[in-house]
Design brief:
The chain is about 10% helix and about 50% strand. The N terminus is likely disordered. It is mainly beta. Helix 1 packs across helix 3. The strands form three sheets. A 16-stranded antiparallel β-barrel has the order 6-8-9-10-11-12-13-14-15-16-17-18-19-20-21-22. Strands 3-2-4 form a three-stranded antiparallel β-sheet, with no helix packed on it. Strands 1-5 form a two-stranded antiparallel sheet.
């Protein structure tokens, strides 16, 4: 192994630095032969003096705009070629073999003042609390298509929602997150009593015109970022039953049946823990529990346990696909009830993604069953590069005999980078057990801003 002092402009030791005049003299000697001083005529001597002045100006600029950093330890890779007699060569030669060694060096790196300022600002950015805002206004109207006249026929609805996100980096791979939400307005679900919500934002509504702490949790990554833990007030639908094409009421489908699987059974956010193990090989395991009732008096009440296995796969000739299988158990009604389901999204091309869900859950009257499917389109089949649109179908049948069938179309238009306008068209049929079916056509618009 070779040892020595690092050379080059990135490594200079301050205690060995030369005085300015000595440095100028050395630079001038390196650039000009010594004999030129004695033999140079007057004009040449003037040019030499001018050259020295230029060198002195450069040194002044270097001293005024750069600083020496704290010493750094670097590891340098050294590659040599050694023959049978042990003689080292810098280049390959006949009868030699390549030998690679690594050398540690204690060096000083010269940085500009601008670099030091950028480093300080970057460090401060990672330590401060950041604020994000996601605001939306949803307009809907209901037109009854079949069945006896109901109160909702011909009415219009509006719901305004604002989420304030707070994020803070506490340590390496450790983040604190909080989401405060406020809603105001009249959602369509107040008069259309469906099995699922026609406006996914309604799930956040606790009380009109009040701010509510929706989420507040701490996330940390362990074991070389292979194990992730989240603990606090959580929404487990953020981590379970995900879907790339149907999972976000702020940008994709508006109806809740095409956002999450209703057989998952979570009614509200609560205290809980989620963990997932991911070796970045395409396979992921998830576990979590959460209380789903604000009236629970102890940790054992209204407790949901969930587990999920995810697999990411790219079939031959297709794009990336995600395949998820989940299982849950809850004791919200005094006895344990289980449910299971799948969620799949598969890219057919760069522009088209197919998705599907299925779920089956135990209930007092039998088994509740749900399935949905559809497609999302982007890029070549849109007006603007950031646009997206989709169409989906969902069917939810309870063990008691009630049934809901829903079709939704949406187009998400990118007005600006942080501002989107969506058009949503929903046709839903509600068929309660033993009574007449009722169908509604529910057009709507969603204006959403995130910054």
């Amino acid at each position: 192994m070779r040892h020595g002092i690092a050379r080059g402009r990135d490594a200079s030791c301050p205690d060995q630095a030369l005085p300015r005049r000595a440095l100028l003299f050395a630079l001038s000697l390196a650039a000009i032969p010594l004999s030129a001083w004695a033999q140079a005529p007057g004009d040449d001597r003037e040019q030499l003096r001018k050259r020295i002045d230029d060198l002195e100006q450069r040194v002044r600029e270097l001293e005024s705009t750069s600083v020496l950093s704290e010493p750094e330890t670097r590891v340098k890779r050294i590659e040599t070629w050694v023959d049978d007699d042990g003689v080292e060569h810098d280049t390959p030669a006949p009868g030699t073999r390549r030998v690679v060694t690594y050398q540690r060096e204690r060096v000083y790196r010269r940085q500009t003042i601008n670099e030091k300022i950028e480093d300080a600002l970057s460090d401060a950015e990672g330590r401060r609390v950041q604020l994000g805002v996601n605001a939306a206004i949803v307009l809907q109207s209901a037109r009854q298509a079949e069945g006896s006249d109901t109160q909702a026929d011909g009415n219009a609805y509006q719901l305004a929602s604002t989420d304030l996100y707070f994020t803070a980096g506490l340590a390496r791979y450790t983040v604190f997150f909080a989401d405060i939400v406020g809603l105001s307005g009249t959602p369509s679900d107040a008069e259309i009593n469906g099995l699922t919500l026609l406006n996914g934002y309604t799930a956040r509504l606790v009380e009109q015109n009040q701010l509510n702490l929706r989420e507040a949790w701490l996330l940390t990554e362990l074991w070389s970022q292979q194990l992730t833990l989240v603990a606090g007030r959580v929404d487990l639908t953020n981590y379970f039953d995900n879907n790339a094409a149907a999972n976000d009421e702020t940008a994709q489908f508006l109806s809740d049946a095409l956002v999450n699987n209703p057989t998952l059974g979570l009614s509200e956010n609560g205290a809980g823990v989620a963990a997932w193990y991911d070796r970045k090989t395409g396979f992921k395991l998830k576990f979590g529990y959460q209380q789903s009732s604000s009236t629970a008096t102890n940790l054992s009440d209204a407790l949901f346990f969930l587990s999920e296995a995810d697999y990411q796969w790219t079939p031959p000739g297709l794009g990336e696909g995600n395949y998820r299988l989940w299982y849950r158990n809850d004791n919200s009604n005094g006895d344990d009830r289980s449910a299971s389901g799948v969620s799949i999204d598969q890219k057919i091309s760069a522009a088209v993604t197919l998705f599907g869900r299925y779920g089956s859950a135990e209930s007092p009257a039998g088994r509740d069953r749900f399935y949905s499917g559809g497609a999302q389109f982007r890029r070549g089949v849109v007006f603007n590069p950031d646009d997206a649109w989709g169409i989906g179908y969902a069917r939810y049948a309870l063990g008691a005999g009630d049934e809901e069938r829903l079709i939704e179309f949406y187009y998400n238009l990118g007005i600006a980078r942080k501002l989107h306008l969506s058009v949503n068209l929903i046709y839903v049929t509600e068929a309660p057990a033993g009574t007449e079916s009722v169908a509604y056509f529910v057009p709507g618009a969603r204006l959403q801003a995130a910054f």
